Amino acid sequence: MVNSVGVDMVQISEMKRLIDISGDVFIKRTFSKAEVERSKRAANRAEFFATRFAAKEATFKAVAHFTKNKGFDLRIIETLEEPDGYPVIRVNNKLGALLEEAGISALHISLTHDGDYAMAFVVAERCCEKVEETS
User: What is the arithmetic mean of pLDDT over 113-131?
Assistant: First the structure.
């Protein structure tokens, strides 16, 4: 059952500007080691990071509302890909605990980019709830 959705769009040229002025500082404070390693194989690193940043924001929008503090550190969200290129949000211990608190059993993500914009759409799924039958 769909619990919530989140969507975010990031301007790729703005991400490039941010990376250019802050260098590795911004990247290391925002992205996981696996995301940084994967970015090295990307044809366009700014596009890669813009898409991953949109994924973090979209996940935040889909999940944070259901947490006690209504927020969390974006660094716990790591977007990787299956061998066939399909994007997935890797659920580590910190994110897993947060999802459990929020009552979310799964996250589904779609990423896209066109021109100067990167976009992410996240669906947060709540585990099936038992429906009472009425006679």
Answer: 86
Range in 67-76, 111-120, 126-135 the model is least confident about:
126-135
Q: In CATH, what number does 2-125 get?
A: 3.90.470.20
Largest CA distance in the chain: 66
Q: How confident is the model at residue 89 (pLDDT cuts 50, 70, 90)?
A: very high
Fill in the DSSP letter of residue 76. G
Helix (H), strand (E) at residue 7 = strand 2-11
CA–CA separation, 60 vs 52, rounded Å?
12
Domain locations in the chain as residue ranges = 2-125
Query: In angstroms, what CA-CA distances link 99 with 2, 80, 86?
Result: 14, 18, 21
Mention every residue, 6+ apart, whose C-beta is less than 8 A from residue 134.
Answer: none
Residue with token string 């550190």: 73
Cα–Cα dist 99/9, whole Å: 23
Phi, psi of 23 (to 5 degrees): 60, -140
